[in-house]
Amino acid sequence: MAALTEEQSMIQHQAQSWVIKHASVQEFRNVRDGESDVEFSPQIWSEMVSMGWAGIIIPEAYGGSDLGYLTFGLILEQAGRQLSASPLFASALVGASAILLGGSESQKKMLLPGIADGSEIVTLALEEGPRHAPKNIDLTADSNADGFTLSGSKTFVCEGMSATSYIVAARTDGKAGSPEGITLFVVPADAEGIKRTKLNTVDSRGYANIEFSQVKVTVGAVLGTVGEGHALLEAILDRARAGIAAEMLGTGSQAFEMTLEYLKTRVQFGQVIGSFQALGHRAAGFYSQKELARSCVEAALQSIDNNDGNIDEMSSLAKCKVGDFLHDMSNELIQIHGGIGMTDEFNAGLYLKRARVLESSYGNQAYHRNRYAQIKGF
């Protein structure tokens, strides 16, 4: 567990109290049961922005506070505890990371201040199939005298309906499955030829399928270097993986606390069920899993802040370990609560549904076990 600075502890406590009061599971239910294509509350998002959360990793020169990824992770963890829906992760972490890592000075000046003040929602458009596969890109970007023409489709784009710009992974050369020939582009969401379709997902979030039909962009839309975008993409993804792991840690931790509370209060056979030795042992095991996952997540976020040489290794380790914990803990949450855990009126099912989506996002446990082994030379 990381030793937090006084400022980080203050931000963590502020986030914890604010999320419980203003962005609780009940607020998520209200959005879920509404009829908007945007699966978050604009009011809640505006308040998050006003507290400076959208500018946590953005340098002060571009309107942010430059407090780092570990600090951002503390906020994402608290949001994960209450299933708080917002573009905070998709735009302020993933989108901002893409611009910070690969953007030109003009791109940074154009987009980073808007991300920090909430006027821009920049999200990554990567996947083209049912599984996380960063090299399997078929969307083409054909060069011409004026720039490039993009044709193809993306699926499961996080905050795809509310985005003002997309970071699009396209292929300027080579074939799907090859790391060579990948180029990233910044594409305005209102560009001619873009069609977005809302997806109804099990976790009731703002995902969308995006179609690009002869979408024209200039050379200035290129993020990084033409044909050499794979390394940049993986660097962006590692930051996304560490960030989403922090949210997963919060979701799993809340599931643990809900389960623990039930063990302490549910009476059966004349005594609280937590007094049964078998259930006590299970709770102790999950506590150990939770703390191990926390150590991995915070280590990954710190490695990014320190610009260490093992960011890829630590991000995969964190995503895998917290994925194991969240998977098992969300199942246990339902099992311990029994029949009531299966009802929509009770929150357990919401945590289970969100857990399954988070596990598969940016690579599931199997993906990251394999990736970690490759990085370590096995």
Brief overview:
By secondary structure, the chain is an alpha+beta fold. The chain contains eleven helices and ten strands.
Feature tags:
378 residues, alpha+beta, Butyryl-Coa Dehydrogenase, subunit A, domain 1, Butyryl-CoA Dehydrogenase, subunit A, domain 2, Butyryl-CoA Dehydrogenase, subunit A, domain 3, 3 domains, four-stranded antiparallel sheet, 15% strand
What does this structure look like?
There is one protein chain. Helix content is 51%, strand content 15%. By secondary structure, the protein is an alpha+beta fold. It has three domains: 6-120, Acyl-CoA dehydrogenase/oxidase, N-terminal domain (Butyryl-Coa Dehydrogenase, subunit A, domain 1), CATH 1.10.540.10; 124-227, Butyryl-CoA Dehydrogenase, subunit A, domain 2 (Beta Barrel); 230-375, Butyryl-CoA Dehydrogenase, subunit A, domain 3 (Up-down Bundle). A four-stranded mixed β-sheet has the order 1-4-5-8. Strand 9 and strand 10 (271-272) form a beta hairpin. Helix 7 (229-265) packs antiparallel against helix 8 and helix 7 (229-265) packs parallel to helix 9. The model has no long low-confidence stretch (mean pLDDT 94).
